[in-house]
Design brief:
Elements lengths: L3 E2 L2 E2 L15 E4 L7 H12 L8 E3 L5 H5 L6 E5 L10 E9 L6 E8 L9 H9 L28 H4 L1
Parallel strand pairs: 1-6, 2-6, 3-4, 3-5, 5-7
Antiparallel strand pairs: 6-7
Helix pairs in contact: 1-3
Length: 163
C-alpha cells in the first residue's frame, strides 16, 4: 500500500477548468509543520511554470481562519488535517471552493499529515490541486496520486498548457 496525496472538491461538479482570477495569497497556520522556507520553495516550482502568487505568510497566533479551519477568500491556507482527513492512505489533501458558473477559484485549503510538511513534493503537489490540477497516474509526474510514484515531471502543468 502506498501513500496517496489526496484531492477533494468542495462544490458542485464543474466541467471546465478551475482558475484563480488574482494571484492567491498563501497563509501557513501555526499548528502546521510547514515552514515559510518550504512553502516558498514550492511556490517557486509553480512560478517557474507561469503561475503567480500573492504573499506567503505565517499566521499570527490566534488567527481566526486557522482557529476555525475556514480559509479566507483569495487565499490558499495550509493547515493541520481536519476530522475528515484520511490518515490511512493520504499524506495531504486539498479542498477548493469555486464559482460553479465560471470556474473561478475563490479559496483553497491544504491539509498535510503531521511529519510530512517538509517532505519533497508534498506541498508542490497540493498547491497543484489548489491551482486546479487533478491527480494522474503518470510515473514520475508531480501530480501522480501516489507519492512513491511521483516526481518532478511537469508535462501539462505550465499555465498556458492548462488555461
Amino acid at each position: 500500500m502506498g501513500f496517496y496525496v489526496g484531492f477533494m472538491l468542495v462544490a458542485q461538479i464543474f466541467s471546465g477548468t478551475q482558475y484563480w482570477v488574482e494571484p492567491p495569497n498563501i497563509l501557513i497556520c501555526n499548528n502546521s509543520g510547514a515552514t515559510e522556507y518550504r512553502v516558498n520553495k514550492a511556490v517557486r516550482f509553480w512560478e517557474a511554470l507561469g503561475y503567480s502568487f500573492g504573499t506567503v505568510t505565517k499566521a499570527l497566533k490566534g488567527n481566526t481562519s486557522c482557529a476555525t479551519g475556514e480559509p479566507p477568500y483569495d487565499t490558499i491556507m495550509i493547515d493541520i488535517p481536519s476530522q475528515d482527513f484520511n490518515f490511512g492512505t493520504h499524506l495531504g489533501t486539498t479542498k477548493i471552493w469555486w464559482n460553479t458558473n465560471t470556474g473561478e477559484i475563490i479559496k483553497s485549503k491544504i491539509e498535510i499529515k503531521s511529519g510530512w510538511e517538509l517532505s519533497e513534493r508534498i506541498i508542490e503537489h497540493e498547491i497543484g490541486h489548489a491551482l486546479g490540477h487533478k491527480d494522474n497516474s503518470i510515473t514520475g509526474h508531480m501530480m501522480n496520486r501516489a507519492w512513491t510514484k511521483g516526481g518532478y515531471n511537469k508535462k501539462g502543468l505550465r499555465r498556458q498548457e492548462s488555461d
